[in-house]
Write a structure and sequence with these properties.
Helix content: 10-25%
CATH architecture of the largest domain: Beta Barrel
Distance between the termini: 49 Å
Strand order of the largest sheet: 3-4-5-6-7-8-9-10
Largest sheet: 8 strands, antiparallel, barrel
Number of helices: 2
Order of helices and strands: EEHHEEEEEEEEEEEEEE
Structural class: mainly beta
Shape: globular
Radius of gyration: 21 Å
Number of domains: 3
CATH topology of the largest domain: Lipocalin
Length: 222
Amino acid sequence: MRFPEQRFSVIVLSNLSTTNPGGLARKVADLVLSDKLVADIATTGPAPNSSAGSSARPTVRVSADILDSYVGKYELAGSIIVDITRENDRLIAAPQGQQMAELFPESETKYFLKIIDARVEFQKDSSGRVSQFTLQQNGQSMIAKRLASANDIPADLSEYTGAFYSEELGTTYNLVLKDGKLVAQHRRHDDIQMTPITRDRFSGSAWWFSKSDLHPRQRRPH
């Protein structure tokens, strides 16, 4: 988290995503810059991109056809799968394993969140198809590429079942079918729900299983 005007930055390192490094960084900034930030807000008001002013930010009406063009799965920062859906006239973003958030339109392509200080802008490729969005948060910009259609995923997921061994971790995960859905099982963890993204590619309900490429050759010989 960067504060250029105060010449101050906060960097939090963690090897566990549930530590919430972004939240810890904000707490550090609140402690170190409390007097300065309070004074700035009192004299100038909330910044245009600040969460303090997001509830009062004006929105526009976007047609259902445009909202539908954004619906799909996107891969953020090469690891996080974000599922964009439409509920009536609302656009919803659901990052894998995280809280869902509504995207509020300030134009047909630009949206903002209220639960955090973040903005999303959708972009099209040369053919006119929505191919990605850019997330702006904490002074950083991250690209989320749209994933290919999952229409080629076989209806029968049994070809992905079996024991998969990781030499790096020295452990085995067993993939089984439950009620027609693929589930990863491990003796130390609860069942992990596997959601198909494209052929041979899945996202898991556990943070350490956020993305998996499955191939029959990875199965452990019996």
